[in-house]
Each structure stands twice: as structure tokens, then as C-alpha cells.
Design goal:
167 residues; mainly beta; 7-stranded antiparallel sheet; 5-stranded antiparallel sheet; 53% strand; elongated
Length: 167
């Protein structure tokens, strides 16, 4: 499973493991492949080799959330304000009163995917709102872009200041 992605200076996504050199302020994605050649990892218990380190823009590094959208595309988020996928998220629930089905309440939001450190889970930060949505398996997701490839989807200042309020 690829766990991270980052964008190169040539605007190409690279997938693999993440390594940051905090002293230099640089970030790398380590592509690991099952082939001969390259460097053997010291903790290599599975016979894999590291093919290469690829420098990426640190602001673009995102982590795989473990979720896929309705088209099978991996959903990536970030710890911080930049870099997460922008998704259309749909959800809803059936409404029962006295055991009788009264209808369905549905909602849809456009969100940027981020990791919320104070509660240790992935959220969809609703664009233009202070509210957020916890990412749950039963919601329907559709990746519609990210701010690096599609800046028009995410105009500057569209995400309101966050607080701990969730939808």
C-alpha cells in the first residue's frame, strides 16, 4: 500500500514513503519497488529494495486516508492547512419517529481532507465554513481535485478558521 504522495517541481505526483529533512527544509518520497538494484533497507525483512528518493514540495505531501472514492481513487489528506484532496462528500440518515420511517435527511458538502490532531482522525474541512465532517466508511466520496492541480477549486481564503465544531 502506498502511504504518501508528494508533487515534484515538475508537477508530477510521486507515491511511496515519506522522509523529511527538517534541518534542510526538504521532503522526499521514497519509492520502493520489488526489483533488483537500488539500496537495501536495513530493516528489509521482505526482500524489497529502495529504488530512489525523489524530492517533493513539502507543502504538497499528503497521506493516504485508507478510503477510496466512488470511482476507486485513493483519498489523500494532510496534517495542516494545505495539500489535501478536495472531495464532494454525501451522507444522510433515515428518520424514524415512534418506530415509523418518516423519510431521509441527506446532505452534501465540498471539503478539503485534513488530519485533526486533537482528536486523531481524518476530517473533511467544509470549504467556506468552520464546520468539519468526520470521514466515515459509509459516506459517499468523490475526489474532485486538489489545490495544486486545480487552484480554481480552492480560491485563497475559502476555508474558514477551524474550531472543534463538527457536523
Amino acid at each position: 500500500m502506498r502511504q504518501y504522495r508528494g508533487m515534484t517541481k515538475e508537477k508530477k505526483w510521486i507515491y511511496g514513503y515519506y522522509f523529511a529533512d527538517d534541518e534542510e527544509g526538504t521532503a522526499f518520497i521514497i519509492r520502493d519497488v520489488d526489483c533488483t538494484g537500488g539500496l537495501i533497507r536495513e530493516d528489509d525483512r521482505y526482500g524489497r529494495f529502495i529504488k530512489d528518493f525523489v524530492e517533493v514540495d513539502p507543502e504538497t505531501v499528503g497521506e493516504f486516508t485508507g478510503l477510496h472514492d466512488k470511482n476507486g481513487k485513493e483519498i489523500y489528506g494532510v496534517v495542516g492547512e494545505k495539500g489535501g484532496d478536495i472531495c464532494k462528500i454525501k451522507g444522510g440518515t433515515s428518520i424514524f419517529v415512534g418506530g415509523v420511517h418518516q423519510g431521509k435527511w441527506e446532505w452534501e458538502h465540498i471539503c478539503m481532507i485534513q488530519y485533526q490532531q486533537n482528536s486523531c482522525h481524518w476530517i473533511g474541512q467544509i470549504i467556506g465554513n468552520i464546520k468539519s465532517i468526520s470521514l466515515l466508511d459509509w459516506y459517499e466520496y468523490e475526489v474532485i481535485g486538489n489545490q495544486f492541480e486545480h487552484p480554481d477549486l480552492f480560491p485563497e481564503g475559502q476555508v474558514a478558521e477551524k474550531d472543534n465544531e463538527s457536523v
